[in-house]
Amino acid sequence: MKTLNRRDFLKTSGAAALFAATPGLAYSQVVGGPGPFSDYKALVCVFLFGGNDSFNMLVPNTTAEYNAYAASRQNLALLQSDLLPITPASSSGADFGLHPAMGSLQSLFESGSAAFVTNVGPLMEPTTRDQYFNRSVQLPPQLFSHNDQQDQWTSLRGNVPGKTGWAGRIADLMRSGVAGQQMATNASLFGSNLFQSANETVAYVMGPGGPIPFEGFSNVPDTLLYEQRQAFLRIVNADYDTIYERGFAAVQRRAIDAADTVTAALDNAPVLSTVFPQSQLGTQLETVARLIAVRDELQMQRQIFFVATGGFDSHDDQVENQPGLLGGVADAIAAFYDATSELNMAGQVTTFTQSDFGRTLTSNGDGTDHAWGGNQFVVGGAVNGGDLYGSYPLLAIGGPEDVGGGRMIPSTSADQYAATLARWFGIPDADLDIVAPHLSSFVQRDLGFMQ
Amino acid sequence: MMKTRILTGLAVAMLGLAACGAGSSEPPAPPGPTPVTKAEAFQLLNQATFGATEAEADRVIAMRIEPWIEDQLRKPPSLQLPHMLTLPPPQFMGQLHTDRVDVWFRNALHGEDQLRQRVAFALSEIMVVSQLGALQDRPFAVADYYDVLVRNAFGNYRELIEEVTLHPAMGVYLSMLGNRKPNVTLNIRPDENYARELMQLFSIGLVELDPDGTAKLDPVTNQPIPTYDQSIIEGFAHVFTGWTWAGSPSFGSGRVPTASQYFPMELWPSEHDTGAKTLLNGMTLPAGQSGEQDLAAALDNIFGHPNVGPFMAIRLIQRLTTSNPSPGYVRRVAAVFDDNGSGVRGDLGAVVKAILLDPEARPAAHMEIDGKLKEPLLRLTQLYRAYNARSASERYPLLASYIIFGQGPLQSPSVFNFFSPFYAPPGEIRNNNLVAPELEIATEYLNTFTTNYMFFQVFGLNQTNPDLDEDDIFIDIQQEMNVAADIDALIDMVAGKLLGGRISGTLRTEIAGMVARLPATETTLRAAETIYLIVTSPEYAYQR
Beta strand B542-543 with B372-373: parallel, antiparallel or unpaired? Predict the structure, then answer.
């Protein structure tokens, strides 16, 4: 007879659900976190700062739905004839089209390597228009505000105070399973961020091209520059009286430690034949590809990368700027997908977008303002691509999802989006509620876009 | 052995690359005739200037603290636009941002109006516009916007927000410039950008505050109470319609004279919405008012909101003295905002004085949350002031400041500034519900970049280097070299200039150990090593 271990017992007894319902207590903290892993997986978050106008990224291509879109958007609407048609698996034909600058994303979608999650955004529970106006449901605080909605997307905290991000919580849950890693699970190429902020683990922030070494330091003993490094280290390792000095010194310590190991590993990275766009995002994603190439040298098993680009706050000149913005994102992510294919890692790397919010369907003259739900996309070999997930709203002013001016109530929650990615990444079902605290308010725990 | 010549080559290459690339609620005790120590003078000067120097500390010691502040409040402003207007026409308009940064450094390093410049810098991190983005080709507008902050640093907040609101730099940056009245048939409604950020970031914030700056809670839901909702945003968005470049031939975009960059925006009555508008605190503007009437009433409406005092008190305290003021400190400063003692609301000079003279700004017993981290740019300016940094061309063309230090004059990545006033790094700071805004840009990456810059600056870009280019900013370490044979004297001298004489045992020991490894004849290296280990140390990064 097979004997049950503790983990099996908890699984089979339904005890896991108890842990899920107990705030702050992780299933995996009781039974031992996920891992050690026999494989490698990476999540790559591409954050589009400013709030991407994603109803011009993924556009309805059927007559009635396109007409509703065009009537709402007026001078911001794309011509139907300019749309790049896509044929989602779950629809009968080319029912949707992409912004004409996103040809590289069209190819990824049609080849089954990209999926869209539609009208997704922060929610605390399913919300209808009536409930919104009656205030009969809990809403994420400070809707339509940039920093607050960036926080909602990346923390999923709802109206509860909390300063960890969902990638940070994933790293915390996994920390014992990946203890041999030479670099933190979370790495940012775009500065500090709430997404990767955690209680038990610390994200490592490098530059868009990777870490830079300290000048004037050597690792060769008995040299002056070695002594300089040691003196510097003893200074930052000293005891300090204030929280500010201690905080500053801690960063310096981590910087010195990681710069050595990561720089040394990257020096051995193979030269990629994939050509990346010369852009802020292209540079960051090229560095991520190189880091993935040296994963074994750094003994990495699970990595979450944060990369980002800005300029999406299109209050002004939207028609002029949108092609460059959307085309730039599509081309950089397509190049990154190609690089992961070149490394034979496409199935182990999943790239996904997040952004502050969607934007108003109505125009302010030459641009759009802050709204709520929007469309995101996911790229990788493990994606059930070539399809749309979630429901796509009727883009009509005063329609069933519009709370005014064409601000769409999300029909799918950011919690569901995060949980689907976290499950693929190796978080057990019982701990998904720690990653995505409002997941239990929604029927679907898994949106199905990951294999 | 370190080769300064090689380092200089690297430093020059790096510069070239970067330049091309892109408590208590008791009222404060009246200031007595207490003598001021050098350490106390340094503390005040690091709060109130672009970096303490021994010469200025002597002045504070001679004058005492309050008279020194009073004297600073009377200093006339050092401005940017007059300098910008003397420059020959550029090949590309955007290249004048290098000159704009240059004149910022001149004023920050050498301006007599140090306190005014420091407060203007603080305001530039609250009411943010940035060169990066739509203002890249408007350097005159950006320079003149900074001058608005400099001129109004000790003026009235109501006048300040009016000048900010009507400035074309802000008009471009937050898209009020060219904002039109609604067109219902085309689903066009006014742009909400400026309306939202004026309230969220420049004046009242998102939630209702008590006079001590703590958030009020709804007694039923126990949640903070929003200061406004979408309908109020829309009300203000309608107010801010009808404004465009001064002297513009058309309302929308189009070629405008260069001088339009530094004149307030002009109203086109035909583009202003004349309907009624819902504002804060239940106020409704009647239909049929002019654009000027609507604007004045709307700014009065914001200015009258009880949040402005505690909101601006917290923002300015965090920029000048401490990241984590007590509620009592906020209440005392907010009370001065509400009434300067003569019945005037919004007197920023009085607010600044209250911030600096508060007992919490110079506590008798130092606690671990007192003070703040210095912003990286201020670590640089303090070094520059202490070591008389200059270039042969007399310019400071550090356009790449935002790349090297994560911040530069009006070079924020967004209207949300270089860092958030609420940033709390993981660990003891977050766990104790404290904040350390400047730590948001003290990442591993930026700290390394800044540390390396200090290395190049100190070892490579000093007066001993015979290969300096005319725009290389170099420091003068001759006095240190003169005493370099005497290690204790050397450390005392640098600690005196950079730390007000207060240096930890660890730092002194480590410097002494390193300097002793260098032959006494290597006076440049000995001096540079001492300065390098101090300017990269946690204790130098800390502002008491």
Answer: antiparallel
Q: What is the pLDDT of residue B22?
A: 33
**CA-CA-CA-CA torsion for B250, B171, B279, A400, nearest 10 degrees?**
80
Question: Which residues in chain A are closer than 8 Å to B442, comparing Cβ atoms?
Answer: 247-248, 251
Q: What whole-number distance in Å separates Cα of residue B424 and Cα of residue B419?
A: 11
Which two structure tokens, joined as six digits, stand for B235? 């009300």
Inter-chain touch B196–A406, beta carbons under 8 Å: no
Residue B164, phi-psi category: left (phi > 0), alpha (psi -120 to 50), beta (remainder): alpha
Contacts of B189 in chain A (CB under 8 A): 362-364, 405
Amino acid in the structure at residue A147: N
Q: Which of helix, strand or coil describes residue A336?
A: helix
Confidence of residue B259 (pLDDT cuts 50, 70, 90): very high
Q: What are phi and psi of A116, to 5 degrees?
A: -110, 145
Q: What is the pLDDT of residues B156-178, one digit of tens each?
A: 999 999 999 999 999 999 999 99
Length of chain A: 451
Q: Report the gap between the CA of A397 and the closest CA in chain B (Å).
A: 9
State whether ipTM is beyond 0.85.
yes
| Reported confidence tier of residue B254, pLDDT bands at 50, 70, 90 | low
Give pTM, 2 decimals.
0.92
Exposure b/e, A307-319, CB count within 10 A at least 16 = b: bbbbbbbbbbebe
Stretch B104-130: mean pLDDT = 98
Nearest-neighbour CA in chain B from A425: distance (Å): 24
Model pLDDT, residue B366: 77
pLDDT in tens, B63-88: 999 999 999 999 999 999 999 999 99
Q: Taking residues B474-484, report their average pLDDT.
A: 98
Tokens of B403: 């790349």
Kindly determine whether residue B444 and residue A405, on different chains, have CB atoms separated by under 8 Å. no
**Cα–Cα distance measured from residue B74 to residue B67, given in angstroms and rounded to the nearest whole number:** 11
Mutation for A interface: B444, B491, B539, most A CBs within 10 A: B444
A370/B192 Cβ within 8 A = yes
Q: Kindly report whether the peptide bond that precedes residue A36 is cis, defined as omega within 30 degrees of 0.
A: yes
Residue contact A147–B416, C-beta within 8 A: yes
Task: Note the Cα B29 to chain centre separation in Å.
Answer: 29
Give Cβ neighbours of residue B526 (< 8 Å, ≥ 6 apart).
B480, B481, B484, B487, B490, B515, B518, B520
For B407-441, the pLDDT digits (tens) are 999 999 999 999 999 999 999 999 999 999 999 99
Beta partners for residue A304, in sequence order: A43, A186
pLDDT above 90: percentage of residues in chain A: 90
Q: Distance between CA atoms of A191 and A307, rounded to whole angstroms?
A: 9
Nearest to A172 by CA among A279, A29, A340: A29
Alpha-carbon gap, residue B111 to B120, rounded angstroms: 13
Nearest CA in chain A to B420: A147
Q: Strand, helix or coil at A387?
A: coil
B539, A240: Cβ pair inside 8 Å?
Answer: yes
- Across the interface, whether the CB atoms of A247 and B439 are under 8 A apart is answered yes
User: CA of B417, closest CA in chain A: separation in Å?
Assistant: 11
Decide: A55 and A361 in contact? Cβ < 8 Å.
yes
Q: How far is A172 from chain B (nearest CA, A)?
A: 13
pLDDT at B20 over 50: no
pLDDT band per the 50, 70, 90 thresholds, residue A30: low
8 Å CB contact of B427 and A211: no
Q: β-strands A204-205, A58-60: how paired? A: unpaired
Is B514 within 8 Å of A211 when comparing Cβ atoms?
Answer: no
- Contacts A310 to B, Cβ<8 Å: 413-414
Strand residue runs (E) in B337-465:
372-373
Bridge-partner residues for A309, per DSSP? A48
- For an interface test with A, the pick among B233, B445, B515, B526 (most A C-beta atoms closer than 10 Å) comes out as B445
